[in-house]
Design brief:
- The structure holds three protein chains of three kinds.
- By secondary structure, chain A is α/β, with parallel strands linked by helices.
- Chain A is built from seven helices and ten strands.
- Chain A has a six-stranded mixed sheet with strand order 6-7-8-3-9-10.
- In chain A, helix 4 packs across helix 5 and helix 5 packs parallel to helix 6.
- In chain B, strands 1, 3, 4, 5, 6, 7, 8, 9, 11 and 12 form a ten-stranded mixed sheet that branches.
- Chain B is elongated and about 95 Å long.
- The model of chain B has no long low-confidence stretch (mean pLDDT about 85).
- In chain C, about 50% of the residues lie in helices and about 20% in strands.
- Chain C has twelve helices and twelve strands.
- In chain C, the strands form two sheets. In chain C, strands 1, 2, 3, 4, 5, 6, 7, 8, 9 and 10 form a ten-stranded mixed sheet that branches. A two-stranded antiparallel ribbon of chain C has the order 11-12.
- Chain C is elongated, with a radius of gyration of 30 Å.
- The chains are: A alpha/beta, B alpha+beta, C alpha+beta.
- Chains B and C meet through helix 2, helix 9 and helix 10 of B and helix 2, strand 2, strand 3, helix 8 and strand 11 of C.
Chain lengths: ~230, ~375, ~400
């Protein structure tokens, strides 16, 4: 299933015969049963499927926060399925930006400090970090709210801060797990527009898991996952 | 009590928290029992005192001796059935750090004056018949490994030199409060070995009375008798005498009370914190219970019961360990506490304290749980 | 290794104010008890340790463990005082004194009675103890029924102020002065003319002879000669060691009791801290998962939790130190087992003790944070993110 690649340069993500099985007590539950996937650079891909189909699991494997039980996961030229934990963490910091359904902002930090977090993992100086944080916040239109705490922001604003956090370190890949799942239609629309802009204007490769067909429509390509297997 | 299983199951589910909380309460109460036992051990000697026994000493202090000549007149005092006397020897065995009491006592009258020192008849005869003999308490013999017939060398500090005494008797105390760490030997043996200038000087006299009611009258009479002599006396019941010693040790009671209070207070704070944190985690659960129909009062009692069970468990554990430990282990702190035992009332007090801690620490979480507004709680969780 | 910023921890501590306060207060109390017992034992030891000077040597009867059980005859005293190692005072006389020690039962201001050390001193005695200075009244005149009392005696006992009269051995003595001995055991003593005390207390001999060494290093020579002299039966010790040895057992007992209490209490507090940190970590599982997803490593998470619990504990330690400062003003009295009389002393709070209190608190924080930190760091990311 290789989707067409509008404007991309090469293959960013490659999965070969990827399998994931969960063990619960003594029972083994297969979630992914042999996934093959190529994602080109610059692509905006939506993953859809019924609940329990494993779409979030697939996303987690590509993002490096989970390991496959079998098969190979190549992202940005590295086989991340076998990297040791420490190197994997560093890899994530460099290559992946996360956007979660429930935003996952740290409530005791301001918007600015939340966005700054990934930059702390780099060797940038204080002023360099400051520039980038402001840039990211400006991009999502929330620069004036930099000093506000998450509890002072609306759901839509929180998600935008989360997106700013996801892009601030200029990662290779953006992964979004149900980014509009907790938002009303208007806010959802804004978020999706933002994602499209990031993809079209800045060439960001985006992998999005969603159950909302309207959201999937905004992406280039939609893949369906059912009972652990990909279908077009 | 049908809810008891629910409460217990809940405590069992968060095993680690339950264990930690019970342990810290147990530790606090163990400390409490230990400290209180330090206080009550000081009083042990008072408890062991006999009401029918008076102590006569030099009015100024124990440091000054009384003449042996006083014995005659003391024996003739009405109300007095026996007169004994002795000198505190103040020596040590092998190592100056081995502190225990030794007394040179008038052998013929000793057992009449001190009936709580119990000795088998043949050992008593052996002791009485031999000038250089001595008797020692069970605890002392166990501690130093002495056996009947051993020659025990005691190094004197007040009466210098090495004194070799043959162990002819091992005594037991009539009650648990009687000190079994003392060595008694013949006063005559001590006296005849002294230079003339130090002969015939007695440390204290013991007077056995026909009735304890005579104590005040006899005390007054004895002191009046010797008031104007070069060695005036001070006569008091043995209880008062021991109490005087204790009061010299000073503010021990106050210090120990301060320590004990600080400890209990600290642990109460810590426990309240734990209960509150636990309650916060269960907001959702409690909201659900309320939607099922559990009333505010019931919720209050359930949360309160949890706190109480934890505290009682900790109390029983802490007091129990203190009780058992000091029964098995001989903790004398170098002879300082001849009888370090936890009294039943200390345990009772400790358990009461545990109950109080349970009430205090459970109060705030229980009340706030009972007051929980269902809707807002469910919203927070969803 | 990249670090999670400390402001994260600080804000969390501030966000759960009540819990932070309770835990900090609990640790503060443990630190307080720790410092309290150190101050008690320290004060007691200091009173005795500093009572003697390394420049003085004291001779008592060999075999005696203290002055009370010692006897030194007049002839023996003369021999000791005439040794070449004894310094001379400006008037040409040996800087030495033979003293008498008895114990007398007196009523405290609180009503209970206890023994007080009564020391018969010679004319050179004050010179031998330079720490002593008169703070009220004047020195007693030899040959008269006059006495001076130490500061603790005048504070704690009845009829012991300048102008009062104390009854000792059937005679009335006028209290003509109060002296300050700088926190040493002399503060708990009553001093009078030794030549007058001897007949009054019916003690025709001295208890000790104290001399000033002309040079500290000459002590050994003096000791050897005197102890080998067949006319005398004395042992010679350096004065500071002599007094330090007296505190031995009681100070050890106080220390060990205090240490025992503190350790057990600290264990209880550590359990409490463990509970607190486990709960804190438990409530923040999703946050920790997010941080790990972003790319913070396990080590960063571990360190962050440790830092938080240690900060919390240090806060408690600082509060405990603050609360412990007033302890300096406490005085208490206990029985010196060398003289069977009261030794009153001031609690001593040194910077070292405060530092020890803080270190102790920090240790509690580290131990209390370690296991929760390990747990937080080892959470699998996906599970952590799934937490509510």
């Amino acid at each position: 299933m290789s989707p067409s690649t509008p404007g991309g340069n090469g293959t960013l993500v490659r999965l070969r015969d990827v399998r994931k099985t969960y063990r619960r007590e003594a029972i083994e539950i297969p979630v992914l049963s042999g996934i093959n996937l190529d994602v080109a650079e610059g692509e905006f891909l939506a993953l859809m499927g019924p609940s329990g189909s494993g779409k979030s699991t697939l996303l987690n494997l590509i993002a490096g926060i989970d390991r496959p039980t079998g098969g190979e996961v190549w992202v940005a030229g590295e086989s991340i399925g076998t990297l040791p934990q420490g190197r994997l963490a560093a890899w994530r910091a460099r290559h992946v930006g996360f956007i979660f359904q429930l935003y996952n902002l740290i409530p005791v930090l301001t918007a600015y400090q939340n966005v700054e977090l990934p930059l702390l993992l780099t060797r940038l100086t204080g002023s360099e970090r400051r520039d980038r944080v402001h840039l990211a916040l400006k991009l999502v239109g929330l620069e004036p709210r930099a000093r506000h705490f998450p509890r002072q922001l609306s759901g839509g604003e929180e998600q935008r801060v989360a997106i700013a956090r996801a892009i601030v370190a200029d990662p290779t890949l953006l992964v979004a797990d149900e980014p509009t799942g907790d938002l009303d239609a208007a806010n959802a629309g804004e978020i999706l527009t933002l994602l499209q802009r990031l993809n079209q204007e800045m060439g960001k490769t985006i992998l999005m898991v969603t159950h909302d067909p309207h959201a999937a429509a905004r992406a280039h390509t939609t893949l369906h996952l059912d009972k652990g297997l990909l279908t077009a | 009590m049908k809810f008891l299983r629910y409460v217990l199951a809940h405590l069992w589910r968060s095993k680690r928290r339950t264990f930690l909380t019970v342990s810290s309460i147990a530790l606090a109460l163990f400390l409490f029992c230990t400290l209180r036992t330090v206080m009550t051990s000081f009083d042990a000697s008072i408890r062991a005192s006999d009401d029918t026994r008076l102590v006569v000493r030099h009015a100024a202090s124990l440091v000054f001796p009384l003449p042996l000549a006083y014995r005659e007149r003391l024996t003739q005092m009405p109300g007095v059935t026996h007169v004994g006397y002795g000198n505190w020897f103040g020596g040590y065995y092998q190592d100056p750090k081995n502190q225990f009491a030794q007394f040179a006592v008038d052998a013929p009258t000793f057992f009449d004056v001190y009936p709580e020192v119990i000795l088998p008849a043949e050992q008593r005869q052996a002791f009485l018949g031999e000038r250089t003999a001595c008797i020692a308490g069970r605890a002392a013999c166990k501690k130093f490994g002495w056996k009947l017939g051993d020659v025990i060398p005691i190094t004197g500090t007040i009466y210098p030199g090495e004194w070799r005494l043959t162990l002819r008797g091992v005594y037991a105390g009539r009650t648990e409060d009687v000190d079994e760490n003392t060595v008694f030997f013949h006063w005559d043996y001590l006296n005849e070995s002294l230079p003339d200038v130090r002969k015939n000087q007695v440390g204290i006299y013991w007077l056995r009375l026909a009735s304890s009611k005579d104590a005040p009258a006899v005390s007054e009479r004895v002191d009046a008798l010797f008031e104007n002599s070069p060695q005036p006396t001070k006569t008091e019941t043995e209880k008062a005498f021991q109490a005087g010693f204790i009061s010299m040790i000073g503010n021990v009671q106050l210090l120990l009370t301060i320590l004990g209070s600080a400890i209990v207070f600290a642990i109460v704070l810590v426990t309240i914190n734990t209960m509150m944190m636990a309650a916060r985690e269960r907001t959702g659960e409690i909201a659900v219970l309320k939607t099922l129909g559990f009333g505010d009062g019931l919720i209050l009692r359930l949360v309160g019961a949890e706190a109480m069970i934890l505290s009682l468990a900790g109390g029983i554990l802490g007091c129990g360990i203190a009780w058992l430990l000091f029964r098995r282990v001989d903790f004398t702190a170098g002879g300082f506490f001849p009888n370090f035992r936890v009294l039943p009332e200390t345990v009772a007090l400790g358990l009461l304290l545990a109950v109080l801690m349970g009430l205090l620490s459970g109060l705030v979480p229980a009340v706030s749980a009972s007051r929980l507004r269902i809707a807002s709680a469910l919203r927070k969780v969803a | 290794m990249a670090r999670i910023p400390i402001v994260y921890n600080l804000r969390h501590l501030g966000a759960r104010r009540v819990s932070t306060a309770l835990t900090a207060l609990g640790i503060a109390l443990v630190a307080w008890v720790f410092i309290f017992t150190l101050a008690l034992a320290g004060g007691f030891e200091a009173a005795l340790k500093t009572s003697g000077s390394p420049d003085n040597a004291i001779a008592v009867r060999s075999g005696s463990t203290g002055e009370l059980t010692s006897i030194v005859s007049r002839e023996a005293a003369t021999v000791v005082e005439s040794q070449p190692e004894v310094a001379r005072s400006p008037d040409g006389m040996p800087l030495a004194t033979a003293e008498l020690l008895v114990v007398w039962n007196l009523p405290r201001k609180s009503g209970t009675t206890t023994n007080v050390v009564v020391r018969g001193v010679g004319p050179k005695s004050p010179a031998l103890r330079p720490k002593i200075r008169l703070v009220a009244g004047r020195m007693f005149r030899p040959g008269l029924d006059e006495i001076v009392v130490g500061r603790m005696v005048s504070e704690r006992f009845r009829n012991a102020a300048v102008g009062d009269h104390l009854k000792l051995s059937g005679r009335d003595w006028a209290v003509v002065g109060v002296f300050d001995a700088g926190g040493t055991s002399y503060d708990s003593e009553i001093w009078g003319d030794v030549e007058l005390f001897m007949p009054v207390f019916d003690r025709p001999v001295f208890q000790s002879v104290t001399v000033r060494l002309d040079d500290r290093s000459h002590f050994e020579a003096l000791k050897r000669r005197l102890e080998a002299d067949p006319r005398l039966t004395v042992q010679v010790r350096r004065e500071d060691e002599f007094y330090a040895a007296q505190s031995g057992m009681l100070a050890r007992l106080l220390r060990s009791l205090g240490l025992f209490v503190t350790l057990v209490m600290a264990l209880g507090a550590v359990f409490g801290a463990l509970n607190t940190m486990y709960a804190a970590v438990g409530a923040r599982t999703k946050e920790i998962g997010t941080l790990r997803a972003i790319g913070f490593g396990r080590g960063a998470v571990l360190l962050s939790v440790l830092v938080e619990s240690t900060l919390l504990a240090l806060l408690g330690g600082a509060i405990g130190c603050l609360l412990a400062l007033p302890v300096r003003t406490f005085t208490t009295g206990t029985m010196s087992f060398a003289t069977f009389s009261e030794l009153a002393f001031r609690f001593q709070v040194t910077p070292g003790m405060l530092g020890a209190g803080l270190a102790f608190a920090a240790a509690m924080g580290l131990i209390g944070g370690f296991f929760p930190a390990r747990k937080a760091a080892s959470l699998p990311i996906v599970e952590a993110l799934r937490e509510a």
